[in-house]
Amino acid sequence: RGAWAARLEARAEHLEGSRRVDALWRAATLIFAEAAEPMTGEAARKEAFAEAWRLYTAASEVARELPGDDGLSVLRELQVAAQLAGPSDAVDAATEMLLAHATSLDEVERGALLRARYVALRQSDEVPDATPRAPKALAEAAANPDARAWAPDALRVRAATSGDFGALAAAHRRLAEEAESAEAAAAHLAASARAELRDGRDDDAVATLREALTRVPGHAYTLAFLEERLRRRGEAEAVVTLVREAAEAQSGTQATVARLLLAGAAAEAAGDVPLAVRTYEDAADHDPSAVSPLWALQRLAERERDPALQLRAREALAAREASGEGAERRQALELGEHYALVSGQPELAEDPLLGAVGAPDVDLDAALALELLPDAPRRAPARLRGLARLAEATAGSSDAPRVHRELGATAAARGVDAALA
After folding, report:
1. How far is CA 304 from the centre of its chain?
2. Nearest residue to 351 via CA among 291, 413, 277
């Protein structure tokens, strides 16, 4: 192969145009095939690759002078050879030569060439003491519409691995702008906000989360993230407004009532009693059969020692006494769990959980939630109620001894019910 390649190269000296390109290209291909043989030693392989690269380069120099895209196949072969054997400089040069010369390349091929150059430079950047060139190549690719299929995500990965949260936020925003669906855009904006927060830009993060909610109102992750940020900033009214808006965006009465209950709880946690009252009453008005908002209102009235409010809540509860207990009691269960697990107010969880014990579908869930409340003397009656219901439900099972021991220990330790202990 080597001898035949040498004769082709010598013959090319006497040829012109496409015929000379063809001779040099064939010579380079022969040498390249020899270098790729499995039995070729490492030293010989490197020497053959270098010789093939020399011939490809010579062919490409002639091909660049040909009209139109006559030299396209040579330039493509040159770029492939550079990827397989040449250093990153060769890949960079061959890619640039192909992109500049070949006017008939489609967008996909141009994007693939830009990616090949970035990958080669990224690998060369890993060499100790190397001058980084991949970031510049990636930035140029990201600005090129041909690379939009891969460059924005490569920017995201590079920013994430390097801990550059500012760049990571920008990359996710770029991906959001190019997302094909509103849900994908909202997800990328939420990720951008997370990066902005880690970059110390809390205000920007909140603004980005609000922007995400304009794309998909009620987006679960974004809503939870924004609510958490607003709580940490002490913006109670903004939390309530946010949850109200989410409730309005949700379809279904139960989901709306549950959201309004959480909004009322947020107002209570912030110490805004009038706002909590209005929110609970809104929840009650939204579903005339729901009793959970009225339990919350009554408990709030008792805590605030407000006789007028307490009377309003009791009258409303009396009016709805004949309502069904399925979905409504589930909302009470969810409210109790929110108090116990989310807002860290187990004392507020007792009333809604006690109201849910005995109700269809949620009976044992509520009993278990009562048992799991933090142990305290004033919560002993509520925990006993939950344990007693669990004892009934587990009678005859392998869990019965444990439940009975816990029931007796709680009753004895707190002196609540010596006979039960």
Report:
1. 41
2. 291
